[in-house]
Each structure stands twice: as C-alpha cells, then as structure tokens.
Write a structure and sequence with these properties.
Layout: E1 3-9, H1 16-29, E2 32-38, H2 45-50, E3 56-58, H3 65-75, E4 80-83, E5 88-92, H4 94-101, E6 110-118, E7 124-134, E8 155-164, H5 175-193, H6 198-210, H7 214-228, H8 237-249, H9 256-270, H10 277-291, H11 295-313, H12 332-348, E9 353-359, H13 366-379, E10 382-388, H14 395-400, E11 406-408, H15 415-425, E12 430-433, E13 438-440, H16 444-451, E14 460-468, E15 475-485, E16 492-493, E17 499-500, E18 506-515, H17 526-544, H18 549-561, H19 565-579, H20 587-602, H21 605-621, H22 627-642, H23 646-664, H24 683-699, H25 703-718, H26 722-738, H27 743-759, H28 764-767
Parallel strand pairs: 1-2, 1-4, 2-3, 6-8, 9-10, 9-12, 10-11, 14-18
Antiparallel strand pairs: 4-7, 5-8, 6-7, 12-15, 13-18, 14-15, 16-17
Helix pairs in contact: 5-6, 6-7, 6-8, 7-8, 8-9, 8-10, 9-10, 10-11, 11-12, 17-18, 18-19, 18-20, 19-20, 20-21, 20-22, 21-22, 22-23, 23-24, 24-25, 24-26, 26-27
C-alpha cells in the first residue's frame, strides 16, 4: 500500500459523493486506501461513504480536529498519508499521480498541493498547503483546530489542485462568519492552556480579523509579534509579517497603502535574502503602489514577484517557511495575475520624458552620445526621437540601434524648424534636447528630478554644459535650459541658436554634459567656422525682425567671439537700448554681462574701468539679486585684480562667493538662466572664487584672513570628488589659455596644477604635460 487517504466527516451528503468521485483517478493510478471517520452524521453521509470504501470509522466528537484525524492516521497502512475534506474536490491530479508512480515520493518527507478557495463558482484564490507526508510511527496531527501534520526537511510542492467550497454557501450569507464563530471557543480554550502557542495566536488573529473585530485581532497580532520579537530566524517570523500586511491592507482608511508599504520595507530590511515568503510581500507592495497610482513602482514590485515565482517553479527558491504561510501566492494563478498586472502598470505609466535630437553625418559622435543617455532612459520612462536632415554616413544605422522614432526631414537652414519636428512627435510630459556631440556625464540629478516628483513644480530645467577645447581636457562651463514641460505654447524659435519659449519657473540641475562641438583637435578653426556658418542665419533673423533681442544677443556674442569688436558693440548697443526699458526682463542681464565681457576682452586698463562701471550701472538699474549677479561680481573682482586693487577685488569676490552659496542652496532667483551663460554658478566656481580671495589677502599680507580662506579652500577640496576637482582645474586651464598673454592667469594655472598634483597623485599623469 503506497497511499492512505484520510477524511473526517459529519453531515456532508451535499459534497461527499463529488469529493470521493474526484479521488478515483488518483486511487486507480496509485495503490491506495480510503479511510473515513464519521463524527455523528444524521444524514446520508455514512451510506455514501460506504459506497466508496469499507474503512468507515464511527467516532465521537470531542471538539478536537487533530484527535479526530488521528483516528484515520492510526488506521492507515500506506507508506504515505494524505488528508482531504468532503467539501474539497481534486481538480487536477496528474502531477500528484506522477509523484508516486515515478518514485519521487521516496526522496521526500512532505508534499504540498494547491487549494483553490472559491468565493463564487468562478472566483478563487490559491494557496499551497502541506497535505501529504511520509507515514511513520510518530506521525500524528496536532492542533485542536486548524490541525496540521509534522513538517520534514525534504518538502516538495506539486502542481495538483483541489477545489474548496468550505467558505462559500449560496443559501447562507453568514456561512463564513458562522465557521469563524464555531472555531473561536476552541481556539480561546487552547489559548488559555498555552498563551505562547504561536499557531493558536495566529488563528485567533485570522478568526477575529475575518469577522471584522479588528481590535481583538490586533491584540493577538501584537502578542505574536512580541513573542517573535523580530527574530527572522523564527519559523513564524514570515507568517506574522504577512499577517501585519494583511491587517493593514484590510483597513479602510486612506493611509492603509502607505502603512502596508512601511511594514514591507521593515520586513525586507530584516530579511533581505529571497525566499518564498517574499513573493507575497512584493505582490502586496505592488498592489499598494497600484492603488496609489505609483504605476512605475508597482511594475517594479510585480516584476520582483514574477522573478521569484520563476525561481520557485524551477525549485531554486528557499521554501522552508511555506508550511507556516496561509497564502504564499505561489501558484500558476498568481504568476498569471502578476504578468497581467505588469502589463497594466506599463500601460498606465505615461512617458515622462521625450528626448529629441537633430543629426546629420554624426557617426563619429552619435553612438557615444546615445550610449551615455541609457542610464537616464532606464531611470525615467523615456522615448528617444531623432530627426535626420540628410546624413550620408552611418548616422541612421547607429540611430536605429537605439530607437525606432527616426524622422527623415528636409534641411531648410532653420534649426528651430528642425527641432520642432521632434517636439511635435513627442509623447512625454517633458521634453529634453541635445546634440550628437554632447555626452551626459552624470544624469543622477536629472533622474531624481523626475523620479522624486520635482518636475511637477517647474516649467523648465537647466543643466551645465562643459565646452571642451582642442586638448580634450580644458573646457568652459555654462548653464543651458534644455528641458521643459510640453504644452501647446512651447516651441523652438530661431533659425540658429534656437531656444525654447518657456513661461514659468526654471530649476537648476547639478548635472552636466560634455560638449565637443568646439574641440578643434580634428578640425582646426572649427570654432570660427561655426561662427561664420551662423552669421548668415543670424543676419537673416535680424533682417526679418531687427528688434528681436535674442537675435541681437547672438550677433553681439558671435562678433565678440570673432574679436570683431566694433560690430559687436553695434548690436550690443541696439540690444541695450531695448532691454534698458525693462530691467526686469530676462534678457536685460544677458546684455549687461556681454557688455562687461566686451570691455574685458578689449584688454586695456581703461576698458577694465569701463567694465567695473558697467557692473555698477547694472546694479543701479537692477538692484534685485539673481544668478547673473554672481558673474557680475566675479568679473568686477577680476577687473580690480588685474588693476591690482586687491581690497576692492576681495569685496567683489566675497559678494560673488555669498551668492554662489545661495545658488547652491536653491535660494537665488535663476529665472534668467536660459538667456545668460553664467560661468561661476557652481561648486567649482565657489572654489575658484575662494582661491582668488585667498591670493588677494596674501598679496595684502592679511595673513590671518588668508589662513581663514585657506581652511575654507581645503574644506571645499576635501569634499570634492576627484572628478569635480579635475573639472575646476580644467576651468582654470581654460581661462589661462583664453587669456592670450596674461602672465598672471597662466602663472595661476600652473600654481593650481602643482597644488592638485600634491593633493592627489592621480592628477600627475594627466596634468604633468601642462607644466612643460
């Protein structure tokens, strides 16, 4: 005899025939016996039972389920024992039969199969329960209610399914509550005898929670948790944390999902190792996120549950706690449900960010650019749209490796028109644009901007761009507004130096991109070539609208770059005459800062004085402090320094230093950052200004003040990563190279390089060449 099947019954004539009929395929395939213990039926139960077996025991009922079942265990003659109730029908026994026919049962001690708990003819939940065990002289049930078999070490989960109708009765709406009320006296009597028995406490919780007496349920939940005391090695630890989650989830209060998530976070902090108990935790977390409409987080939790279910089905997951769990969510039903919800979540998750690019013959840069974007696109629900304006190299092939959103558009000498093609195709809430020769250095802050919800408060965002020069090391830094909320009114404007029209608050991101568009290592004179390419488009814009201040700004900036100062001054004056009428406009600071730059570039003592006067005039017309004021004070300090007016230089530098700190603390107005290229508004700028203050104090022999600033500098360096410190040095080198014959700037650059090499030996191979 291989298998003994035991049952206890009382007045089960409604279910028993169907139950025993469903057992016949198993009993025909496996050498079996059926033992039925009747506890006092007064209907046709015994007569039905005797049609299927001669092993019918008539026993007395002593309010003890374990005692009743043990009558069938003692009568059993098989190698294995299985128990079932009359209201359970074996639906699928193929794997159960194979378990015995194949001989697999000889290597196991226990086996689980799935109980499908029906709440209606079609709706059910599935739970794996230990219903079979190897029969030994020591085998017996324990527990006067919710009785259980002993658990061995070698347990196996079988994909066999039993329908259970015990908690569904169409003729009695209170059937479930009546069963709970029947169980409670038995459980309470047992609790009085042993108030530390976790199994009794567990079922008292479920009984009270099931009939809606949540206060009493919480008493027993807390009692069990106090016994376990967060000992994750305890057999009941996972079970009671599941109970905590179920208790919070069954609450009707609005904060219930948040409480569920807090309990689950605590669970994984205490028990991070994956096991079967984690499956339900991930599912419950996912459902809470789903209720809160956090669809991305919900999808992530569902995916974690799915991955554990896959391991579970491959028998590669720790299932040691399975026997203590009421519902471990481990069935094929749960896997199907999880996969369906993953699809639902992904359908609900809107594209947050659309990234648009225009390209032509960018095969040299494009792959590196798009590869660098992947962390951002993986961290934020994104799409990539690339508009090609007529490439003849491998640009399109490279683009196709990263996106299907590729537009082929004509080139009409209009950058705004080209970019608007990508903006029109965008499906995201926000839009970001970049060029193929720009590589994202670190997108952490951009990802946080979206994942932490900051983007909901702003209309645009700016990040820093490092313009690299020929050596691939030196660069200039400026902030550019490259992200915006998509709306009907947002579009690009300008044939060249195209820009977004944004009406609203802008956020400054502490992220930067490397830009190699002005790296003339491979193309000598590329900067001048680009400027000359842009001039006809700028003049076309100027001829169409001579009062457009953006066009005047870029014409002035281009001619300053080309050192055609007379032409630059013409457009500067035109722009200033317009913007002076409204000093509060965002373009007013841009023209005044360019005018300062213009005077500094002239390079005479007189022009330095004019630069200082321009700064003073700026603050008279626009006394309110904003991000432009940082560079105004910094450049004024530079002029005083060149004029050897060290005390005045210190005063200006300290003003700049204070404003940078406000900027870094997000306490400074940055609304004009889309139109003004500020150079010092960063941590590296903070360090550069601090060093200039220190040097001025040294020259003045203010050694006590110099010591204070030296400590400030060392503190900045100490808290700067190698990358940030390197960036700072790159800027110093850049300014030295751009300073033409300025011995002061070049000497200062060498000084900083030597200082860096002493600070960190990793600078030596990179910077030693600069000392030659």
């Amino acid at each position: 005899m291989i298998l003994s099947i035991g049952m206890i019954v009382k007045n089960e004539s409604h279910h028993l025939k169907n139950c025993l009929t469903a057992l016949q395929p198993l009993m025909r395939a496996v050498k079996s016996e059926l033992i039925i213990a009747d506890t006092g039926s007064d209907d046709d139960t015994v007569q039905i039972a005797k049609k299927f077996t001669n092993n019918v025991l008539e026993i007395s009922w002593n309010n003890d389920f374990a005692e009743a079942r043990n009558h069938t265990v003692r009568a059993a003659k098989g190698e294995w024992y299985m128990f079932i109730d009359a209201d359970e029908y074996l639906e699928d026994s193929v794997q159960l039969i194979d378990f015995f026919i194949s001989g697999a049962y000889k290597k196991a001690t226990n086996a689980f199969y799935y109980i499908r708990e029906y709440s209606s003819p079609t709706d059910y939940t599935e739970t794996a329960l230990p219903r079979l065990c190897k029969l030994t002289p020591c085998t017996k049930f324990t527990g006067s209610i919710h009785e259980s078999l002993p658990q061995g070490e070698n347990a196996i989960v079988l994909n066999a399914y039993v329908r259970h109708h015990g908690y569904r009765d169409s003729n009695d709406s209170d059937f479930f509550e009546k069963k709970m009320q029947r169980n409670l006296p038995i459980l309470l009597k047992k609790y009085e005898k042993n108030p530390s028995d976790l199994l009794t406490i567990r079922y008292l919780f479920y009984s009270y929670n099931g009939i809606g007496e949540r206060i009493k349920a919480k008493v027993f939940l807390d009692k069990g948790l106090s016994i376990i005391d967060k000992n994750m090695q305890h057999d009941a630890f996972v079970c009671f944390y599941h109970m905590r989650v179920e208790y919070c989830a069954s609450d009707q209060k609005p904060n219930a999902p948040h409480r569920v998530l807090a309990v689950i976070d605590e669970y994984f902090m205490l028990k991070p190792a994956p096991s079967v108990g984690a499956i339900k935790m991930h599912i419950e977390a996912a459902m809470s996120h789903f209720v809160l409409t956090n669809y991305k987080a919900a999808a992530s939790s569902f995916e974690k549950a799915r991955d554990l279910l896959v391991l579970y089905n491959k028998q590669k997951l720790d299932i040691s706690e399975l026997g203590t769990l009421t519902d471990a969510c481990t069935s094929a039903y749960h896997l199907k449900m999880v996969n369906e919800y993953i699809i639902k979540c992904k359908q609900q998750v809107k594209t947050t960010l659309s990234i648009g690019m225009i390209v032509k013959n960018e095969s040299h840069h494009l792959k590196n650019c798009l590869t660098a974007l992947q962390p951002l696109m993986n961290g934020v629900k994104s799409e990539l749209i690339i508009a090609d304006t007529g490439s003849t190299d491998d640009t399109l092939k490279i683009a196709q490796q990263f996106t299907n959103n590729i537009l082929e558009i004509p080139w009409n000498n209009d950058f705004a028109q080209a970019r608007n093609h990508t903006l029109k195709a965008a499906k995201g809430e926000w839009f970001m644009f970049l060029d193929a020769d720009e590589y994202m250095e670190d997108g952490t802050e951009i990802i946080k901007f979206f994942t932490q919800g900051h983007y909901k408060k702003y209309q645009g965002a700016a990040y820093k761009i490092h313009n690299y020069l020929a050596d691939g090391i030196s660069f200039g830094e400026f902030s550019a507004v490259r992200l915006c909320r998509i709306s009907e009114n947002v579009q690009f404007e300008g044939y060249v130096h195209e820009h977004l029209t944004i009406d609203g608050e802008i956020y400054a991101l502490n992220s930067h991109f490397r830009h190699y568009g002005y790296d003339n290592a491979s193309e000598p004179g590329i900067i001048e070539q680009k400027q000359q390419r842009n001039l006809p488009l700028l003049h076309r814009m100027y001829n169409e609208n001579p009062n457009d201040v953006n066009t005047l700004r870029y014409l002035a900036k281009t001619y300053i770059s080309l050192r055609e100062f007379d032409k630059a001054k013409t457009y500067l004056d035109e722009g200033l005459s317009i913007t002076k009428e409204n000093p509060n406009s965002n373009l007013f600071p841009a023209f005044y800062l360019m005018l300062v730059e213009y005077y500094i570039k002239l390079g005479t003592n007189e022009s330095q004085r004019m630069a200082i006067s321009t700064v003073d005039e700026y603050f008279t017309l626009r006394p309110q402090l904003s991000v432009t004021a940082i560079d105004m004070y910094a450049e004024k300090g530079n002029c005083h320094l060149d004029l050897k007016e060290y005390g005045q230089a210190i005063q200006s530098y300290e003003n700049a230093h204070n404003l940078i700190q406000l900027f870094l603390d997000s306490q400074l107005d940055i609304s004009e950052i889309s139109t003004v290229n500020v150079a010092y508004a960063s941590k590296t700028g903070l360090l550069a200004i601090a060093e200039l203050i220190f040097e001025c104090h040294v020259v003045l022999k203010n050694f006590s003040s110099a010591t204070i600033w030296q400590k400030i500098i060392f503190n900045y360096i100490k808290h700067m990563s190698l990358e940030k410190l390197t960036s700072k040095l790159h800027q110093v080198i850049y300014h030295a190279q751009m300073a033409d014959d300025s011995k002061h700037d070049k000497a200062l650059a060498i000084k900083h390089i030597k200082s860096a090499m002493r600070t960190d030996s990793r600078f030596i191979p990179m910077l030693s060449e600069k000392l030659k």
